[in-house]
Amino acid sequence: MRATTLTVAALSAALLLTACSSGGDGDSDQDRKAAASCVDELAVEFGPANAAPAAGDTGNVPVTVTNRGGAECALDGLPAVEFDAGAASTAVAPDQAAPSGKTELAKGASTSFTLTYVRGEEGGGKSLVAQKAKVTLPGSTKGHSFKWSYGAVALKSDGKTPDASVSGFQRSGD
Question: Closest Cα to residue 88, out of 153, 16, 4?
Answer without folding.
Answer: 153
